[in-house]
Amino acid sequence: MLPKRLVLDSWISTGTFAEFVGTILDMGAARTSAYVCCANVHMLVEAHQHPDFRRLLDEASLVVPDGSPVAAAVGWFHGLRQSRVAGMDLLPALLAEAARREQSVYFYGTTDEVLTAMVARARHEHPGLRIAGAYSPPFRELTPEEDAAETAAINAADPDLLFVALGCPRQERWMAEHRGRIRSCMLGVGQAFPVYAGLEPRLPLWARKLWLEWAYRLWLEPRRLWRRYLHTNTRFVYLISRRALAYRVGRPHIPA
């Protein structure tokens, strides 16, 4: 398993992009009931404020440095050259390598429209890819009977990798609740679904390098996201600054 380093209160996995891809596919091939979280600023602030969510992240097999500030913080506090490993890049890379290794995948979450477009693109780009299934659950809490039926259906399809897009923190909680019940490596990749489907454009590379994806998402969905970004971004900057100051004065364990 890839080593982890502490950023604020959360343990972030470290390694190269290729190491993340290989580790995830190996867990899938082993039919390990594991889950992978793609950590951005929002997720780390959620973990800082909610101990139950922090425990959920701690128990993940991998916590991918999805956000550029998260990857940068690994370097700031641990002296490592950690590149960003974005979920939007992981998804297509894992599909390509799964096709090469003859491993199977399953898409769970979002809408039927997105899933149909995703499956069409995946089959076009990787004709040999084994797509075990795709399902859009209701946008509400499932009954125990519905959840048991969906879990049984996924296990019957027997995928190596189960891509989950239910939104943060719902998808992370869902994966944690189904660890030990679903025989796959589960990955919470959220926003990567509509981007891969071609239904939502991705920010150009130059803007991503300037850490502007949050601004782009805010421009796309201002009414839904403005409160989140106002709170989480400013809170993250405050917490990181406070932790950095503690390191500079020789007190790295100050509570943030």
Automatic annotation (TrEMBL):
GO molecular function: hexosyltransferase activity
Record-linked InterPro entries: WecG_TagA_CpsF (IPR004629)
Keyword match Transferase: yes
Keyword Glycosyltransferase: yes
Keywords recorded for this protein, A-Z: Glycosyltransferase, Transferase
Pfam families attached to this UniProt entry: Glyco_tran_WecG
Xref: PANTHER family: PTHR34136, UDP-N-ACETYL-D-MANNOSAMINURONIC ACID TRANSFERASE
Protein name stated in the entry: Glycosyltransferase
